[in-house]
Design the sequence.
C-alpha cells in the first residue's frame, strides 16, 4: 500500500511539473505572439507615411474625395500613439475643387480604448480651416458648397456621435472661420471670424466645454460644466453651470449665468450693458444696435413653476427704440399654463431685426405696442385655452409687399381667445 501511495504521489508531482512547463510554454508563446503583433503594429504605425498611396486610395473609396497632405508624422506622446498631419485637403475629383482644408491635425490615442472597445483619444487637436454651412431651398445642408445631407430625409446612421465625442479626454478646435447661411428662409449670413472650442472629460461623467467666438466688433466667451452622460439630456444632469460673456471694446456687453441641479433648470440671470457700443454680428447690411441695457432673470419657484422678470429694458437701434423703459414679466407652470406681459414695445426697432432677412427691403414699421397680455392653459406649444389682449398707438406700416397692406397712425386694441 505504501508503495502504491508513493508511486501515485510521484506521478502527481510529475504531472504538476508537466502542467507548469506546458503553462510556461503557452504563456511564452502568447507573449511572443503579442510582442510580434505589437511590434508589427508599431512598425506599420511608425511607417504609416510609406503607405500613402494605399491611404489615398482608401479615402477615395470611402469618401469620394482625393486626399492630400504635405506631412504625416507618427510617434509616441507619453507612450501613447501620436499622429500629426499638416495641410490636409480633400478635393472633388470631378470638379477639381478643394472641398475641405485643415492646416494641422494632432491625434493621441489612449490605451483606455482597449477597455472601452472603441477609439478613445487623449487628445484631438484640429486647427486652421474655413467652414461655410448653408441650409438651401431643397432642405440640403451644405458644407463648402458640397451636400452633406438632406434634413428632410436625414441619414439613418445608428452611430452615436454624442457618446463618442463625450468619451474623448480632450478635444480642441482652433482658428476656425465660420459662415452660417439659411438661404431657404432668406436670412443673411452670420459670420464668425475665429472660432475656438475645447472639451475635456475628467472622468465620472464630468465634462468641461469652453467656446471663444470672434464677431466683427466683439467676441463671446462661453463655459459649460456639467455632470451627466449626455449633453442633450439635461434632465439627467446631477448639476451644471453655463456662463456666457459677450465682450466688446469697452467691457461686458452681455453676461449670462444659468444653473442646473438634479436635472432641473434652477435659474438664468442675464445682465445687458452695451456701454453705448455699436453691435453688429451679421453682415454690413444689418443696422447696428447702438445701445442696450437691462437685466433678465428666470427663477425656479417650485419643481414645475418658473418666473420671468425683465424690468426697465432699453434697446436702441439705428431706426429707433425696440424697448424704451419696457418691462417683461411672466410665469410658466410646466404642462399646466402660464402668462406673459410685455409693455412699451417699439416697432421702429423691429426694422433692425428685419434686416436679418431680405423681407426688410419691402417693409417699414413704426408706432408703439403699449401692452401685450397673454395667458394660456395647458402646454405652451399646444394650449387648450388662451387669452390675448393688446393695445397699440400710432402704428404704421409702409409696405412694398403685395400681400401686406400699408396703413398709417392706427390706434386701438385687440382681444382674442
Sequence:
Amino acid at each position: 500500500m505504501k508503495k502504491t501511495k508513493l508511486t501515485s504521489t510521484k506521478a502527481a508531482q510529475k504531472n504538476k511539473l508537466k502542467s507548469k512547463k506546458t503553462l510556461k510554454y503557452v504563456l511564452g508563446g502568447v507573449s511572443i505572439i503579442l510582442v510580434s503583433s505589437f511590434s508589427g503594429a508599431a512598425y506599420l504605425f511608425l511607417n504609416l507615411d510609406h503607405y500613402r498611396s494605399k491611404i489615398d486610395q482608401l479615402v477615395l473609396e470611402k469618401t469620394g474625395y482625393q486626399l492630400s497632405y504635405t506631412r504625416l508624422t507618427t510617434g509616441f506622446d507619453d507612450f501613447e500613439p501620436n499622429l500629426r498631419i499638416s495641410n490636409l485637403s480633400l478635393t472633388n475629383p470631378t470638379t477639381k475643387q478643394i472641398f475641405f482644408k485643415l492646416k494641422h491635425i494632432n491625434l493621441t490615442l489612449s490605451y483606455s480604448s482597449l477597455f472601452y472597445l472603441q477609439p478613445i483619444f487623449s487628445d484631438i487637436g484640429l486647427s486652421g480651416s474655413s467652414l461655410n454651412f448653408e441650409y438651401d431651398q431643397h432642405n440640403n445642408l451644405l458644407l463648402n458648397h458640397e451636400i452633406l445631407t438632406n434634413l428632410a430625409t436625414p441619414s439613418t446612421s445608428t452611430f452615436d456621435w454624442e457618446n463618442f465625442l463625450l468619451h474623448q479626454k480632450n478635444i480642441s478646435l482652433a482658428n476656425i472661420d465660420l459662415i452660417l447661411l439659411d438661404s431657404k428662409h432668406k436670412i443673411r449670413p452670420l459670420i464668425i471670424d475665429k472660432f475656438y472650442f475645447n472639451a475635456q472629460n475628467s472622468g465620472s461623467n464630468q465634462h468641461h466645454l469652453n467656446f471663444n467666438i470672434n464677431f466683427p466688433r466683439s467676441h463671446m466667451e462661453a463655459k459649460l460644466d456639467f455632470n451627466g452622460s449626455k449633453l442633450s439630456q439635461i434632465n439627467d444632469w446631477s448639476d451644471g453651470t453655463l456662463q456666457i460673456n459677450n465682450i466688446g471694446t469697452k467691457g461686458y456687453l452681455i453676461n449670462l449665468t444659468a444653473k442646473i441641479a438634479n436635472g432641473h433648470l434652477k435659474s438664468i440671470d442675464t445682465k445687458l450693458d452695451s456701454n453705448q457700443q455699436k453691435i453688429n454680428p451679421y453682415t454690413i447690411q444689418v443696422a447696428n444696435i447702438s445701445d442696450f441695457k437691462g437685466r433678465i432673470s428666470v427663477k425656479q419657484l417650485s419643481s414645475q413653476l418658473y418666473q420671468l422678470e425683465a424690468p426697465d429694458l432699453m434697446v436702441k437701434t439705428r431706426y429707433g427704440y425696440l424697448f424704451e423703459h419696457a418691462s417683461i414679466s411672466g410665469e410658466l407652470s410646466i404642462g399646466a399654463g402660464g402668462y406673459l406681459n410685455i409693455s412699451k414695445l417699439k416697432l421702429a426697432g423691429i426694422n433692425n431685426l428685419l434686416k436679418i432677412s431680405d423681407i426688410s427691403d419691402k417693409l417699414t414699421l413704426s408706432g408703439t405696442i403699449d401692452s401685450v397680455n397673454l395667458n394660456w392653459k395647458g402646454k405652451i406649444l399646444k394650449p387648450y385655452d388662451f387669452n390675448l389682449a393688446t393695445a397699440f398707438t400710432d402704428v404704421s406700416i409702409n409696405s412694398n409687399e403685395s400681400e401686406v397692406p400699408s396703413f398709417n397712425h392706427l390706434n386701438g386694441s385687440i382681444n382674442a381667445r
